[in-house]
Each structure stands twice: as structure tokens, then as C-alpha cells.
Amino acid sequence: MALAIFDLDNTLLNGDSDYLWGRFLGDEGLVDAKSYELENKRFYDEYKAGTLDILEFLAFSLKPLSEHSMKELAALHEKFMRSVIRPLITPAARQLLEKHRRNGDFLLIITATNDFITTPIARELGVDDIIATNAEIKHERYTGRVAGTPCFREGKVSRLQEWLKREGRNLAQSWFYSDSHNDLPLLEQVSHPVAVDPDDTLADHASARNWPQLSLKGENISPLTPGA
Questions:
Q1: For the chain, counts of helices (H) and of strands (E)
Q2: Which residues contact 124 (CB under 8 A, 6 or more apart)?
Q3: How confident is the model over 100-129, as pLDDT tens digits?
Q4: 7 annotated active-site
Q5: Is it the case that residue 227 has pLDDT exceeding 90?
Q6: Is 228 inside any structural domain?
Q7: Residue 172 lies in a domain
Q8: Does residue 206 contact residue 213 with C-beta atoms inside 8 Å?
Q9: pLDDT for 200-226, tens place per residue?
């Protein structure tokens, strides 16, 4: 059984769930919308530029989780799924997942976004497992801190290696789909790296390495390069 690995934000989703959760909190009046959006956008711009301090960002993004009960957060997330996330799942993204499902592949999402946000999205997409940044829980509440290694850049590689060892799997004939140059450390590890609606840095790297480039933004999977 081959391993088909997918980044989530701006890959399987036509948007960034981490950034959009912050905006959702502002829309719900749970954070100061203006000041929170300024910081949220700063971190998002740093992520795209490849300069993000992941621990600084996680201290910012996980803090609101510590301010609400699990029951309150579950209700908020269901509204977030309904109003924000489900409209961002394109038919093309579902087609790609189904293609690998029909091939008998094991479907795995690996994402820097925290597991509170992403675990319900993974269930919606019907994948077999997910590796995400873990938000720490103590006494049945989120603490606002990260647990373990953030699943970001080289951290994705180390978290995946831990998962492979635990699950008794390997990267033989593996696939990894991502939009971001931040995922180059993991893209270099798999048998079949694929750039999906890539940022400029990843697009240039993929072109130089003759990696396939796809778009999942529409009704059908669209090749961005010949032979993709």
C-alpha cells in the first residue's frame, strides 16, 4: 500500500484554515477583530516569505483555545466548518483523493496547522490519518501551548519519520502534494513530489526538477505543466 501524503492549506483547501480561523474568531467577536487581523496577516505574510517564527506564531494562534471550554470550541468549530471550510473543498481536491483511494493508497494529511482546527477537516475529507501540530491539553482544556515538535518545515520530516516508524510504513513509491516552498524538505524525501497551485519559489524549484504541477482550484484536476 503506497502512501499518498497531502498538505492541507492551499492544497486540498482553496484557502488557509489557520489564517481563516483567526478571521472567524474576529467575526464572532471572540478577539478584537482589527488588532488580531493585523497580527494574523503579519504571520501569514511571514509564512509565505519563508521567515515565520513558528513558536511565536503558535503562542499567538493557540492562546484563544485556552479561553474556552471544549464544548464551546466544538460548537464554534462546527460553525467554522459549515460557513468557512466546506466551501473551500473543491471538486478537484475530492477527485485527487478519490484517485488515490481507488489505487488502494493510504491517505495521509500532514499540516503545520494545529490539530484542533484540522482533525475535523481530515474527517470531512475521509483521509486515513493526519499529522498536525499538536495543541497541548491539560485537565480537559487547551493550555495555549504547543505539545511536541511543530509540524512545520523540517519538523514535518521528523514528525513523518516518527509516524512511519510507529505505523511500520515507509516512503517507497510515496506521493506528496503541496503548494508551499516551506514543504521543500519533505517534497525532497518522497518518490513522487507534486506542486499544487505552487507559490513562485516552489514553482521555480519544481520546474527545475521536472516535478509535476497541478491545480485543484476548479471542478477538475488541471495540469499546470506538460505531462503532469
A1: 9, 8
A2: 81, 85, 86, 89
A3: 999 999 999 999 999 999 999 999 999 999
A4: yes
A5: no
A6: no
A7: yes
A8: yes
A9: 999 999 999 999 999 999 999 999 976
Report how far residue 7's alpha carbon sits from residue 108's, in angstroms, rounded to the nearest whole number.
9
**Predicted local distance difference test score (pLDDT) of residue 228:** 60
Number of separate domains in the chain = 1
* Per-residue pLDDT tens over the stretch 3-16: 999 999 999 999 99
Average pLDDT on 28-50 reads 95
Residue 117: what residue type? I
Alpha helices (runs of H) in the chain, residue ranges in sequence order: 17-27, 33-49, 54-62, 70-80, 91-102, 115-125, 154-167, 184-187, 200-209
Q: How many CA atoms lie within 13 A of 119 on its CB side?
A: 8
127-158 pLDDT, tens digit each: 999 999 999 999 999 999 999 999 999 999 99
Output helix, strand, coil percentages for the chain, rounded to the nearest 5: 55, 20, 25
Decide if 122 is inside a domain: yes
Is residue 9 part of the annotated active site? The answer reads: yes
Sheet holding 129-138, edge to edge: 141-147, 129-138, 106-114, 3-6, 175-178, 192-196, 213-215, 222-223
| pLDDT band (50, 70, 90) for residue 174 | very high
Domain that holds residue 21: 3-223
Long-range contacts formed by 57-60: CB under 8 A, 24+ apart: 58/114, 58/133, 58/145, 58/146, 58/150, 59/144, 59/145
The DSSP call for residue 196 is: E
Q: How far apart are CA 164 and CA 106, in angstroms?
A: 12
Would residue 200 count as lying in a domain? yes
CATH number at residue 211: 3.40.50.1000
